[in-house]
Amino acid sequence: MATKHNVLEIMEKHRGESVSGEYIANLLNLSRNMVWKAIKDLRKDGYVIEAATNKGYRLTPENDILAKEGIKPFLLSSDLANNIQVYAEINSTNREAKAQAIAGAPHGTVILAEQQISGRGRRDRAFFSPPGSGLYMSFILHSGVLGFHNPTTITAYAALCVCEAIEKACGLKPAIKWVNDIFLNGRKICGILTEAITVFENQHIHEIILGIGINVNTKPEDFPEPLQDIAGSLYPDGKAQTTRNRLAAEIINQLLYADKPSEAQLFEQYKARLFMLNTDVTVVQGEGKEEKAENTEKYMAKALDIDEHGRLIIQMPDGTTKTLVSGEVKVF
């Protein structure tokens, strides 16, 4: 690891506190001049580090640059940091995770990026992924290690983990719209994309690529015009009360370290966070990217409940019920 990354890890552990150059030098077995050079390099990278005579260096609390060293202090186990990769810019974290999974990357590999050039969500929609204001991350999960095998169950588990992480890191209480969207104050703040990698010979699901995109401090006017009435963020005023590193760590803790509920417990907790039950919805089914595509079906229904496998039970206009395994629902 480069010297500046070692220094950054110490500064992150003491974020907001003054740390003497002598202390850092002794801890890392470096000269004071090497510490000074590392601090200089970190400032070039955008970190705001204050220096005061007889006090040392201070990483100011408002720093919010996504980095492995910033995530590590908040992890429940330091081992979880071994497989974290952070990119300044990437085509798509899911695409990179899929390539690494095929190449043999281990369970628990986490790919994060400050910016995605071609981020995407369900139904192959583009996912707005600007730098500095969101959290874009993908996990490589081996189904045998995770304990859940059905993609729907894994998606529900991820949604639950994201909600719990947001509560712990931000003190906010988001809700879930079936099957994979997280809402806060009536606006979508997070999307989850689950993709399976199967063994060709027997079609057994071997790995799951789990993508999570969260709008952290994007202002309403900064979203593309088609999204301005739909999308929201955790801190729409642009003044985040926690760092993206802290939030990323909490999501990693929840997904990879926390005790997992049974499937029955999982869907009980998931249902408790659903906000659109007993509500009129529009159901969109099919593979078309656009709702007007020829192979896309769209109709009105009422969301009633979910079953023991997380499938949505809806009531049709004629009073009959139907169970949805996949699809999208829109709340009026």
Question: What does this protein look like?
Answer:
- This protein is of the alpha+beta class.
- The protein folds into three domains: about 5-60, Orthogonal Bundle (Arc Repressor Mutant, subunit A); about 70-275, BirA Bifunctional Protein, domain 2 (2-Layer Sandwich); about 280-330, SH3 type barrels, CATH 2.30.30.
- It has nine helices and 15 strands.
- Strands 4-5-6-10-9-8-7 form a seven-stranded mixed beta sheet, sandwiched between helices. It has a five-stranded antiparallel beta sheet with strand order 14-13-12-11-15, with no helix packed on it.
- The mean pLDDT is about 90.
Average pLDDT for all residues: 89
What name does CATH use for the topology of the largest domain? Answer: BirA Bifunctional Protein, domain 2
CATH architecture identity of the largest domain: 2-Layer Sandwich
> Structural class per helix/strand content?
alpha+beta
Strand content: 25-35%
| Rg, nearest Å | 22 Å
The CATH superfamily of the largest domain is identified as Bira Bifunctional Protein, Domain 2
Q: Total domains, how many?
A: 3
Strand order of the largest sheet: 4-5-6-10-9-8-7
Q: Give a short account of the largest sheet.
A: 7 strands, mixed
Under CATH at level 1, the class of the largest domain stands as: Alpha Beta
Distance between the termini: 52 Å
- Counted by DSSP, the helix tally is 9
**Bulk shape:** elongated
Fraction of helical residues: 25-40%
Low-confidence stretches: none
Q: Topology as H/E string?
A: HEHHEEHEHEEHHEEEEHHEEEEE
What is the number of E strands? 15
